[in-house]
Design brief:
With 326 residues, the protein is an alpha/beta fold. The chain is 46% helix and 11% strand. The protein folds into 2 domains: 78 residues, no CATH class; 196 residues, 3-Layer(aba) Sandwich (Rossmann fold). α7 links the parallel β3 and β4. The C terminus is likely disordered.
C-alpha cells in the first residue's frame, strides 16, 4: 500500500477527523510502524495495536475501498499530491499545530512542495482593501520575495490576492491556502501569466470537491498561520462589526498570537482612515510596522527565531522533529 493512499483513505473515511489522524500518526511513530505493516485482520489489529484498532475497526469498511481508491488515482492524474505525517517536505511545526488547533495533518497540494520547507510569512487583510492597503500589500510581499521568503496568503479578493501578486511580480514564490477543495480552484485573470508549476504552491485541507463556506475560511486561517514564521496584517476591521460578524483578518491575527508567532501590523497612521482592527491588534501585542521600511524587521525576526530553534534542546521540539525527519 502506498503511504499517500493510506493517509488519503483515512482522510476520506467518515468519522476520522484531525484529532484521529494525529492520534494515528503518533501511534505509528510510537511503534515505528509503516502503513503496509498494519494487520489486515481486525482481531489481529486489536491484539497487536489496540490504540489503532480503537480508531480503525469501527470506521474502515472494505466496501468503501474501490470508490476511495478511484478518487485517489484521479488526484494522481490531476497532479494533486497528498501531504501527510512523516513526509520529508512536511514542516515539523505543523504536526504540533494540527493537534492543538484541530488542523488536518493530511493536506492536498499542487505545485512545488519544497516551498513547505522554505521560510514563509503570511500576509492577511481586508477584502475591501484601501488604495494604501494595496500599496502596502504589494511592496511588503515584493520585499519579502526579494529576501528569499515565501509569501503565504488565502487567495481571497483584496489583500490576499495583492500579496500573492506582489511576490510573483518580484519573481518570488507564493503559497495559496484555499478555503475550499482543489477541484474548486480557478486561476484568476491576473495570475495566469505566472509559472504556477515553479512558483505557486496551492494547499487545501478540505476534500477536493468541497465548496467555499464561511466556516472553512475561518479554518483556513489556522492553516495559514501554521505554515508561517510570522504574520503581517495589512488592514483589519474590528474583531466584530456592528452586526456581530467576525472579522476573518482579526481572527487570523489572534490565531497567530496564540501560536506565539510574531504578528506585524501596519501602522494605523499609514492610512488616511486608521483601521480599527489595526489599532486593537497592536494593543493586543502586535508589532507596529511602517511599510515604508519594508520587510527588514520581519526578516530579522525570522532569523532570530531560527537561531533560537537551532539552540534549543526542549523536549517538545525534539519530539516534533522526530516525527518528520526520518
Amino acid at each position: 500500500m502506498q503511504t499517500s493512499y493510506f493517509w488519503f483513505r483515512l482522510f476520506r473515511t467518515r468519522g476520522i477527523g484531525p484529532k484521529s489522524l494525529v492520534s494515528i500518526a503518533r501511534t505509528l511513530e510510537k511503534f515505528q510502524l509503516q502503513p503496509a505493516e498494519i494487520p489486515h485482520s481486525k482481531a489481529e489489529l486489536s491484539a497487536s495495536f489496540p490504540e489503532l484498532a480503537k480508531i480503525l475497526n469501527s470506521k474502515i469498511f472494505l466496501e468503501d475501498r474501490n470508490e476511495i481508491y478511484q478518487e485517489y488515482k484521479q488526484l494522481e492524474i490531476e497532479g494533486v499530491d497528498i501531504i501527510y505525517p512523516g513526509l520529508s517536505v512536511c514542516p515539523a511545526e505543523l504536526f504540533g499545530y494540527a493537534e492543538k488547533y484541530d488542523i488536518s495533518p493530511v493536506l492536498f497540494a499542487k505545485g512545488p512542495k519544497t516551498l513547505l520547507r522554505v521560510d514563509g510569512v503570511s500576509i492577511v487583510g481586508s477584502r475591501n482593501v484601501s488604495p494604501k492597503g494595496i500599496i502596502a500589500s504589494r511592496e511588503i510581499a515584493a520585499d519579502l520575495a526579494n529576501r528569499g521568503i515565501n509569501v503565504i496568503s488565502g487567495y481571497a479578493k483584496g489583500v490576499d490576492s495583492e500579496a500573492h501578486l506582489g511576490a510573483l511580480k518580484a519573481q518570488g514564490t507564493t503559497t495559496i491556502v484555499l478555503s475550499y477543495g482543489m477541484k474548486e480552484l480557478r486561476k484568476k485573470k491576473d495570475f495566469k501569466e505566472y509559472n504556477w508549476d515553479r512558483d505557486v504552491l496551492v494547499i487545501s485541507q478540505f476534500l477536493p470537491k468541497t465548496r467555499w463556506m464561511a466556516r472553512n475560511a475561518m479554518a483556513r486561517n489556522k492553516l495559514v498561520c501554521a505554515l508561517s514564521r510570522a504574520v503581517v496584517v495589512i488592514e483589519s476591521g474590528p474583531e466584530k462589526d456592528l452586526n456581530g460578524k467576525m472579522s476573518g483578518t482579526f481572527n487570523a491575527a489572534k490565531t497567530a498570537l496564540s501560536m506565539n508567532l510574531p504578528l506585524f501590523v501596519i501602522s494605523p497612521s499609514f492610512f488616511d482612515k486608521p483601521p480599527r482592527g489595526n489599532l486593537d491588534l497592536i494593543d493586543l501585542g502586535g508589532i507596529e510596522l511602517d511599510p515604508l521600511n519594508g520587510a527588514e524587521g520581519i526578516a530579522e525576526r525570522i532569523w532570530e527565531l531560527k537561531k533560537e530553534a537551532e539552540n534549543t534542546d526542549s523536549d517538545n521540539l525534539r519530539v516534533q522533529m522526530s516525527l518528520f525527519q526520518r
